[in-house]
Specification:
The chain is built from 25 helices and 22 strands. It is of the alpha+beta class and 711 residues long. The chain has 4 domains: 188 residues, Immunoglobulins (Immunoglobulin-like, Sandwich), CATH 2.60.40.10; 240 residues, Aminopeptidase (3-Layer(aba) Sandwich), CATH 3.40.630.40; 127 residues, Phycobilisome linker domain (serine acetyltransferase, domain 1); 120 residues, Phycobilisome linker domain (serine acetyltransferase, domain 1, Orthogonal Bundle), CATH 1.10.3130. The longest helix has 20 residues.
């Protein structure tokens, strides 16, 4: 039993998360494998006692057994009793939000002034529902204001925690979690070979200067560049409005991480040769169905854009005195040394920069999975990293790190680093500086600085140069004359990032100002002709592009393809800008692999592959260690596929094309369509597994030298 308390105490002291309203994982990473802490909104401060000692005198135990309820069970009436003594709910801690059948769940409920009732306590019961059926479980142990519940859950389904009943000689006090606007839920999945094990935590030693030694960390920079020589960084603002983060001192983690990421992106984009993406730009969630799937979707998104690094931005919590920054990284010498080494070096570079603004380094943290299930193993059979972001990024060929930035539960950290936009900007800039140092990036030239102009006067110069080209885009895309400041800002971006004409046009077309005009497909294509080709459309050409849009091609793809015309090349050249081009090194060198990837685009997206996407997946399959299952997941969880709402028959027909290289036969198609009763993602994955396991597909992959992998 001591191990349980030590485990809870260690987690809450080192990296626990306190939050309001919704469940959130410890260490501030919103994943299914992590412990969970909830705090009521009624609490004024976010504080957890960390001085608890491990002595028998401080604990009260009970031999309470799991309470089995039937339809005939009569629950005792509950009442508010002064004699009950216990106060309001502080918070709830859950060890996991996703379990498998037979797994033991650990739940801790903190109740104010609980110690006042321990002398006449009879029982404490935790009430919960499993798919709507109410059950209870008695407590295992209490300490101070903490109540420990442990239970192995054999029934698969969705569990929701409802209340605690504190039963004393004076009566029963029921504390309803809904009264505190707390939603605490977890899912028990059908067993698929998951084996529970002990926690293994590996923490790297801290040097005399408070930083982890950086020996052997300067070995991976060359191979981290993308095929175009441009670094691709994905910033992942931790949590969102669906899977909320920690809360404390009047702040919410998901709000702070978004602001830090936005400041980081703005700073990074002042450097040359870097492209920055965000997993979210608001409170939305990539996959709201579960925490675990949301984490996987973030990693898959990073892979889909060819990321060289994913940085997941979080705020720690759990202790009122905990402070500092920490980087969670992948274990070295385990699987894909190039990626794990990259997480160490990038994490350390960022920690160094955060230390300069006062966020002391708590070092690098490595933690390994305690399960033998396939999900928690790498393709080489090695035990995978415990954190979902770290583990799943490695699996898709991207180094992913989790950066913790101070404690939202510590009033001092909040006052020094978190309670103003100015302070959050310092964190974002420090993160960006560390990332830039890791990749060896440099900022723009003195030419761009010399052209800096903050004037709000209209920019009317039509000179055939870069400023003139930017002014042309304002007029032709947005329909207005820019200010001198707007042109100056774009000149700086173009100069620092060596942005080509195609990329610049796509930035304007993707802007909120342009998309807010809500053009129809007809109007959009006509505007593309006017902007990119500087002429009116011809009927046949216009109809071709409209039909492409109506068949599922994205507007971004159409804009990209039109911008690679000779006419646009001439327009760029007259303004002294490069048109932009695509490198198809791997696609051209390995035509069979390119054909393999193309089938996915045609089968799932109903379109030809875009050059960047084709090159990325070819490179990943040839050199990056990706499997056929990896590319399947990349497409299934992409925003483009999820937004298509593909019908059952179209989906199955696409699978025949991808996995069997032929059209469907009537009986086979009818069988697989019948398996898609709700057309949900889980059903689609189940059907795909049937195709992947076919001997026909196995032989196809063997000929290409591609590992099939597992979904």
């Amino acid at each position: 039993m001591k191990k349980i308390w030590k485990r809870i105490l260690a987690m809450t002291m080192s990296a626990a998360v306190l939050a309001g309203t919704f469940y959130i994982p410890t260490y501030a990473e919103d994943i299914s494998e992590e412990p969970v802490v909830l705090e009521t909104e009624a609490a004024d401060t976010t504080e957890m006692t960390t001085e608890t000692t491990e002595t028998a005198a401080e604990t009260t135990t009970t031999g309470g057994e799991d309470t089995e309820l039937t339809e005939d069970t009569v629950l005792p009436e509950t009442q508010e009793s002064a004699a009950a003594g216990a106060g309001s709910l502080n918070y709830i801690y859950m060890d996991d939000t996703n379990l498998f059948q037979g797994d033991e769940q650990t739940i801790v409920v903190s109740v104010e002034s609980l110690k006042a009732v321990t002398d006449n306590l009879q029982d404490i019961r935790l009430g919960y529902t499993i798919d709507g059926e109410e059950e209870t479980v008695s407590y295992t142990k209490i300490r101070d204001d903490l109540i420990l519940f442990e239970k192995k859950f054999e029934q698969a389904g969705k569990y929701a925690l409802l209340y605690v009943d504190i039963v004393t000689d004076a009566g029963t006090r029921r504390i309803l979690f809904s009264d505190y606007e707390v939603t605490a839920e977890f899912q028990v999945e059908e067993t698929i070979g998951y084996v529970d094990g002990g926690i293994q935590m590996e923490t790297y030693a801290v040097g005399e200067d408070g930083l982890v030694p950086v020996a052997d960390l300067n070995t991976v920079l060359p191979q981290m560049r993308s095929a175009k020589g441009e670094v691709v960084v994905v910033l992942d603002p931790g949590h969102d409005k669906v899977h909320c983060g920690a809360a404390g001192n009047g702040l919410r983690e998901e709000d702070l991480t978004l602001k830090i990421a936005q400041y980081c992106k703005a700073e990074l984009e002042q450097y040359r040769n870097v492209k920055v993406y965000m997993t979210r730009n608001d409170g939305s969630c990539l996959d709201p169905s579960s925490n675990g799937k949301c984490m996987v979707a973030r990693c898959n998104y990073a892979a889909s854009v060819g990321a060289d690094l994913l940085v997941s931005i979080h705020i720690d919590a759990g202790s009122a005195t905990g402070s500092g920054a920490m980087a969670i990284v992948a274990k070295k010498g385990n699987y894909r040394d190039d990626l794990s080494n990259a997480t160490h070096e990038a994490g350390q570079k960022i920690l160094n920069q955060l230390a300069k603004i006062g966020l002391a380094s708590r070092g690098l943290l490595v933690r390994m999975s305690d399960s033998d299930g396939d999900e928690y193993r790498y393709p080489n059979g090695a035990v995978a990293d415990w954190y979902s972001i770290t583990r799943n990024c490695i699996k898709v060929g991207v180094p992913g790190i989790i950066m913790e930035h101070g404690f939202i539960s510590n009033p001092s950290d909040v006052a020094n680093f978190l309670n103003s936009d100015e302070k959050l900007k310092k964190i974002g800039v420090a993160d960006a500086t560390g990332i830039a140092e890791y990749f060896g990036l440099s900022k723009g030239s003195k030419v761009a600085e010399a052209m800096k102009d903050d004037s709000m006067e209209p920019y009317t110069d039509k000179t055939k140069n870069v400023p003139g080209f930017i002014a042309y885009l304002y007029r032709s895309v947005l329909g207005r004359v820019p200010t001198r400041k707007e042109v100056s800002e774009w000149v700086y971006i173009v100069d620092t990032r060596q942005m080509d004409g195609t990329t610049l046009v796509k930035n304007f077309l993707n802007s909120a100002e342009f998309t807010g005009k809500n053009y129809s497909d007809d109007e959009y294509v006509e505007r593309l002709y006017e902007v990119v080709l500087q002429r009116k459309s011809e009927p046949s050409g216009k109809q071709y592009w409209i039909s492409r849009l109506q068949s599922g091609s994205s507007r971004a793809l159409i804009a990209d393809q039109i911008s690679h015309s000779p006419e646009f090349e001439m327009l760029c050249a007259t303004h002294g800008m490069a048109q932009g081009s695509h490198s198809l090194q791997y696609a051209k060198t390995y035509p069979k692999i390119a054909e393999f990837v193309t089938a996915y685009y045609q089968g799932l997206m109903n379109r030809k592959p875009d050059p960047d996407g084709l090159e990325y997946w070819c490179r990943s399959l040839v050199q990056g260690g990706s499997t056929a299952a990896d590319i399947t997941k990349g497409f299934l969880y992409s925003p483009e596929f999820r937004g298509r709402n593909q019908g059952r028959e179209e989906f199955v027909e696409g699978l025949y094309q991808i996995y069997l290289g032929r059209k469907s036969d009537p009986s086979g198609k009818a069988y697989w369509v019948g398996r898609l009763t709700t057309n949900s993602m889980s059903e689609k994955i189940s059907v795909i597994k049937g195709f992947i396991q076919s001997p026909e597909y196995q032989q196809y992959c063997d000929k290409l030298g591609i590992l099939v992998g597992k979904l």
